[in-house]
Amino acid sequence: MSPEELKARARRVVEEILNQGDLAVANELISPGCVHHIPGPQPAPGLAGLIGWLAVTQRIFPDFHAIVEDEIAEGDRVVQRITCYGTHQGEFCGVRPTGEQVAFPSIEINRAGADGKFTEHWSSADLLGVLHRLDVVPALAGHTPGRSRHAPDPADHIPGRPHLPEGDSDGFIRPHA
C-alpha cells in the first residue's frame, strides 16, 4: 500500500469513524485483532475495543470532533498529529461534567497489515492538558498561562468545531483565580 493510500485510510478513521461514528467503516479499516495502545486503561483488541472507546468518548464529550493537522506515512505505518475538541458533559478521570470546552493535541500511529486494515494503534493524547483545562490539576510551577507553541489556537475556529470562549488563551490552561 502506498504512503498516500495509508494516509487516506487513516484520515477516514478520524473523519468517518471518530467524527461521524460510522462503524461500518470501522469494519472496513480496522483488523478484528487490532491492538490499541492508548493512555489509561487499555481497551479490548479489535473493533470491540474501538467501539467501547468511542462509546466512552461520546459519553464524556458528546460533541467530540478531531481535525487532522499533519500526517506522515512510511512503510506500513501512518502518523497523524490531530487536535481533538469537545465539551465536557460526562465524568472524565473522576471529574464530574463541567460544561467546559476543551481542545487537546494527540499523536496517532497506525500500522497496517498486508490486507490494508490497521492491526496496531498507538495514541498519545494530552490528557494532562485536559485536566488542566478542567481545573483539576494546577498549572505547573513556573508556567505562565498563555499561548503555548503546541496549543491549538482557539482563534483558528473551523465551522462545525466547538469554539472556545473568549479569554481562553491556549485551549488548555486557565489562570487560577
Task: Describe this protein with a few key phrases.
Nuclear Transport Factor 2, Chain: A, alpha+beta, disordered C terminus
Low-confidence segments, ≥5 residues, pLDDT <50?
A: 144-150, 161-177
- In the CATH scheme, what's the topology name? Nuclear Transport Factor 2, Chain: A
Structural class: alpha+beta
Rounded average pLDDT? 82
Q: What is the strand tally? A: 5
State the helix count: 4
The end-to-end distance, rounded to whole angstroms, is: 53 Å
Tally the structural domains: 1
Topology, element by element:
Elements: H1 3-18, H2 23-29, E1 30-37, H3 46-60, E2 65-74, E3 77-87, E4 101-112, E5 118-123, H4 127-133
Parallel strand pairs: 1-5
Antiparallel strand pairs: 2-3, 3-4, 4-5
Q: Your description of this structure?
A:
With 177 residues, this protein is of the alpha+beta class. The protein has a single domain, classed as Nuclear Transport Factor 2, Chain: A (Roll). Helix 1 runs antiparallel to helix 2. It is globular, with a radius of gyration of 17 Å.
Task: Offer a concise description of the structure.
The chain has 177 residues and is an alpha+beta fold. It has four helices and five strands. Strands 1-5-4-3-2 form a five-stranded mixed β-sheet.
